[in-house]
């Protein structure tokens, strides 16, 4: 299995020509793999509604030199939907566990954005021998705000399929960042949109992910702040200066709670990583390459 010709071209336009191998873990999970077996290995976990190609903009800063394994979480991208829906944090962490066992012999660098950061923090706290270093990118680790959840999710709660569009071009044109993100390069938008849409039925184009993920209590784990105290690996916290998902107060609380955590702030909002992929990738590389040798290797 591999990318389509257009998919390869869209990805290569963002990664400087580097195209990943597409790999299945079992029947359900789809992953992208860049690089060879040279350590360090980083496992990359996208956010809610995203997919594995959200990491494409960071690839030029990390490959060659790193092995990258980016997974589509269940219900997202080209991974299978669960029946009945099972989208709790322990379910997503089980996906990470399967991918680590199949493609990324530990210890690994675990990187998560948004909801993926919650999964990464949960996994690092429960599997300290597996995670060598942790990177949390603009992730909300406190409990879900009921009013905010209702604003963003009430209209889709209980639904699994999103709106359909009569043509692929119409679906691609409807691609949006939620919340909005300025200054994302056109090539990145085209790449992310291409890998986000699928023809559900003839003449019915839609976005791939299962809306059952969008419950009002999110991943069901609630406030993870106390759990963060169990994380013992070096941790890098990255945030957008204009993001309300991880604002300055939350960022400071996370850094104060996780032992050995440091933070860096980038211009932009919640999705700054796709607007400033090379800079974010450089920050990840500097962080991991700066670790003691015993904490860098795989």
Measured on Cα atoms, how large is the radius of gyration?
Answer: 18 Å
CATH superfamily of the domain at 5-140 and 226-296: Alpha/Beta hydrolase fold, catalytic domain
Structural class: alpha/beta
The total of helices stands at: 11
Cα-to-Cα separation, first versus last residue: 27 Å
Task: Spell out the helices and strands N to C.
Answer: HEEEHEHEHEHHHEEEHEHHH
CATH top level class name of the domain at 5-140 and 226-296: Alpha Beta
Topology (SSEs and partners):
Blueprint: H1 5-15, E1 21-25, E2 29-34, E3 41-45, H2 59-62, E4 67-72, H3 89-103, E5 108-113, H4 115-126, E6 131-137, H5 146-153, H6 168-173, H7 186-194, E7 197-201, E8 204-207, E9 235-240, H8 248-257, E10 261-266, H9 272-275, H10 277-289, H11 293-296
Structure notes:
The protein is of the alpha/beta class and 298 residues long. The chain has a domain at 5-140 and 226-296: 3-Layer(aba) Sandwich (Rossmann fold), CATH 3.40.50. Helices cover 32% and strands 19% of the residues. The protein is built from eleven helices and ten strands. The strands form two sheets. Strands 1-2-4-3-5-6-9-10 form an eight-stranded mixed β-sheet, with helices on both faces. A two-stranded antiparallel ribbon has the order 7-8. A hairpin with a 3-residue loop joins strand 1 (21-25) and strand 2. The radius of gyration is 18 Å and the shape is globular.
């Amino acid at each position: 299995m591999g990318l389509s010709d257009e998919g390869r071209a869209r990805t290569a336009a963002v990664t400087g020509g580097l195209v990943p191998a597409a790999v299945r873990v079992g029947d359900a999970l789809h992953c992208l793999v860049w690089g060879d077996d040279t350590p360090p290995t980083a496992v990359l976990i996208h956010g809610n509604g995203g997919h594995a190609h959200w990491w494409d903009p960071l690839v030029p800063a990390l490959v060659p030199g790193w092995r990258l394994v980016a997974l589509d979480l269940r219900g997202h991208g080209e991974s299978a939907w669960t029946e009945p829906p099972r989208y709790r944090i322990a379910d997503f962490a089980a996906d990470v566990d399967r991918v680590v066992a199949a493609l990324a012999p530990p210890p690994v660098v675990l990187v998560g954005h948004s909801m993926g950061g919650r999964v990464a923090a949960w996994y690092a706290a429960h599997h300290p021998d597996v995670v060598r270093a942790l990177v949390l990118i603009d992730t909300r680790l406190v409990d879900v705000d009921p009013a905010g959840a209702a604003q963003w999710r009430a209209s889709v709660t209980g639904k699994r399929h999103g709106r359909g569009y009569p043509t692929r071009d119409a679906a691609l044109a409807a691609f949006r960042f939620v919340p909005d993100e300025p200054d994302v390069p056109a090539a990145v938008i085209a790449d992310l949109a291409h890998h986000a849409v699928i023809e559900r039925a003839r003449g019915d184009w839609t976005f791939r992910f299962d809306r059952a993920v969008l419950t009002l209590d999110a991943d069901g784990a609630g406030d993870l702040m106390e759990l963060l105290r169990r994380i013992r690996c070096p941790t890098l916290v990255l945030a957008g200066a204009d993001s309300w998902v991880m604002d300055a107060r939350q960022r400071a609380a996370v850094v104060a709670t996780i032992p050995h955590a440091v933070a860096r702030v980038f211009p932009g909002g919640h999705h700054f990583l796709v607007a400033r992929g090379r800079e974010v990738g450089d920050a990840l590389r500097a962080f991991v390459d700066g670790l003691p040798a015993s904490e860098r290797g795989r």
